Amino acid sequence: MSRPLGIAIILVLFFLTGLYLIGKLRLSHEPPVESIGAGRLVAATAFFVLSLYMFPGLLGSPLNALDAYLPPRQAGDTGLFNMLGASPGSVEAGADDGWHVDDIDAAIAEASERGLPIFVDFTGYTCTNCRAMETNVFPREAVAERLSNNFVRLKLYTDGPERGDEFHRYQLRLTGIVALPTYAVVEPDGETLIRRSFGMMNVDRFVAFLDEGYSRFRS
């Protein structure tokens, strides 16, 4: 499921739930709602607010903490206007820009040409912690600059339908662990591990991980 489609489904469900709570939508066997209590009104308002909050996501905007619970951004994701045919050819900005996605050979070729280590993000389509890191840590300036300037970036979905098993085995062989998310700094050959880490990290800890990996590569 694409990110825009996931957002659209959740938005509609939230909006319909709000309508149900205020009595504007009811099941065939239910009597009309004659009065709305404070609890239902507060709950309905919350669902309507969430619907409005998620709407910019249909246009390609980030949804901050909620992005952790949505499908990952993909380079081919289109915003609402493109889905409706109003803006052909546009895609969500920033989705996997500069990353090799599920393409180990391309990452190795670029790393060998540029003389840089490979940063491997072992991630998953259903990994909430992966989305949280990609949304809240990767875009931070200190992290983004290091990833862009010091590494060739490779993202591998270990739960993908086509090559997930292959990447899962590669992760286990390279790092010795199968947890998600797992991050590895690797020599340009794609097989020699320099540094690894896994799980959630704050910005400072992640920057330290990247700096140590790059320093080891240069030493």
Can you give me a brief rundown of this structure?
The chain has 219 residues and is of the alpha/beta class. The protein has helices at residues 3-21, 38-58, 80-83, 104-114, 128-136, 141-150, 164-175, 203-218; strands spanning 99-101, 118-123, 152-157, 182-186, 193-198.
Please, could you describe this protein's structure?
The protein is α/β, with parallel strands linked by helices and 219 residues long. The protein has 2 domains: 3-84, no CATH class; 100-218, Glutaredoxin (3-Layer(aba) Sandwich), CATH 3.40.30.10. Helices cover 47% and strands 12% of the residues. The protein has helices at residues 3-21, 38-58, 80-83, 104-114, 128-136, 141-150, 164-175, 203-218, and strands at residues 99-101, 118-123, 152-157, 182-186, 193-198. It has a 5-stranded mixed β-sheet, sandwiched between helices. Strand 4 (182-186) and strand 5 (193-198) form a beta hairpin. Helix 1 (3-21) packs antiparallel against helix 2. The longest helix has 21 residues, at 38-58. It is elongated.
SSE order and pairing:
Blueprint: H1 3-21, H2 38-58, H3 80-83, E1 99-101, H4 104-114, E2 118-123, H5 128-136, H6 141-150, E3 152-157, H7 164-175, E4 182-186, E5 193-198, H8 203-218
Parallel strand pairs: 1-3, 2-3
Antiparallel strand pairs: 2-4, 4-5
List keywords for this structure.
single chain, alpha/beta, Glutaredoxin, 2 domains, 5-stranded mixed β-sheet, 8 helices
Specify the number of helices: 8
The structural domain count equals: 2
Low-confidence stretches: 83-95
Strand order of the largest sheet: 1-3-2-4-5
What percent of the residues sit in helical stretches (DSSP H or I)? 40-55%
What's the total number of strands?
5
Annotated CATH architecture of the largest domain? 3-Layer(aba) Sandwich
Strand-pairing-aware structural class: alpha/beta
Fold-level CATH name of the largest domain: Glutaredoxin
Q: Give helix and strand order, one letter per element, not per position.
A: HHHEHEHHEHEEH
Compute the average pLDDT. Answer: 85
Categorize the overall geometry: elongated
Strand count, sense and closure of the main sheet? 5 strands, mixed
Distance between termini? 43 Å
Strand content: 5-15%
